[in-house]
Amino acid sequence: MPTLSEARIATILAPFLPSPPPDILPKLSAYLELLLKWNARTNLTAIRDPEEIVRRHFGESLFAGLHLASEANTLLDFGSGAGFPGLPIAILRPEIAVTLAESQNKKSTFIQEAVRTLGLKAEIWAARVETMPQTIQFHTVTLRAVDNMVAALSAAAPRASNDLLLLTGLPPIPPTGFTFQKPIPIPTTQSSILLRGTRD
Ligand SMILES: C[S@@+](CC[C@H](N)C(=O)[O-])C[C@H]1O[C@@H](n2cnc3c(N)ncnc32)[C@H](O)[C@@H]1O
After folding, report:
1. Which of 5, 115, 146, 192 lies at 20 to 30 Å from 127 by C-alpha?
2. What is the DSSP string of 29-87?
């Protein structure tokens, strides 16, 4: 028996994604089971309650997925951790070529395993983004809850040919060359906002 039924996952996600495509629920359920299993022996996320993992990690990531430009075809998730927001986005928008960049070995090993288990096409960059060849760019770069947003943004901005999508507590100083829209409140929380910046 899964920890949470697919119906329960859909109910928790309703404020973020009112009508989840039915084919994403089995994948989200499998992702949750794998994350709970790995998190019991290695610290991938401080959130341990399954409903909170669905609400905070899955919900916020899928909400970000709804706010991507319709023409986004490549996406880099900068500092993906246990896969957020890039992995739920890869589940929701399988037509986007998603790259998950994570420099910590145990986390990149987990997301590699999650991508394999879920049958996704996402790529993993198991190193710091700064070590990627300079010429590699992505339509959109996402950043969520990275520790040093100023440093991360200066490394992320040159990688974004079009958009930066940030899930963050406070609006950061925008990098030059991007115009940010008004912050979008994230459902069920007052502690973070969604910000989309578009290249001028
Ligand atoms: C606080 S965690 C947040 C993880 C995830 N985005 C989330 O919202 O749960 C930040 C992650 O970014 C990774 N990271 C920080 N700087 C990075 C860089 N330059 N390249 C790749 N990964 C980086 C860290 O190893 C860490 O796992």
Report:
1. 192
2. HHHHHHHHHHHTTS-S-S---HHHIIIIIIIHHHHHHHTS-TT--EEEEET-TTTTTHH
Range of the domain at 166: 6-199
**How far does the centroid of ligand 1 lie from the alpha carbon of residue 78, in Å?**
7
Within-domain flag for 1: no
Domain CATH number, residue 192 = 3.40.50.150
Closest ligand 1 atom to the C-alpha of 60?
A: 8
**Pocket perturbation via mutation, ligand 1, pick of 146, 168, 191 by most ligand atoms within 8 A of CB:** 146
What is the tens place of the pLDDT at every residue in 64-89?
Answer: 999 999 999 999 999 999 999 999 99
Whether residue 138 is annotated as binding a ligand: the answer is no
The ipTM is 0.99
The verdict on whether residue 33 carries a ligand-binding annotation is: no
Strand intervals (E) in the chain: 74-78, 97-101, 123-125, 138-144, 160-168, 178-180, 184-185, 193-199
pLDDT, tens only, 23-52: 999 999 999 999 999 999 999 999 999 999
Q: Is 129 annotated as a binding residue?
A: yes
Cβ-based neighbour number of residue 74 at 10 Å? 16
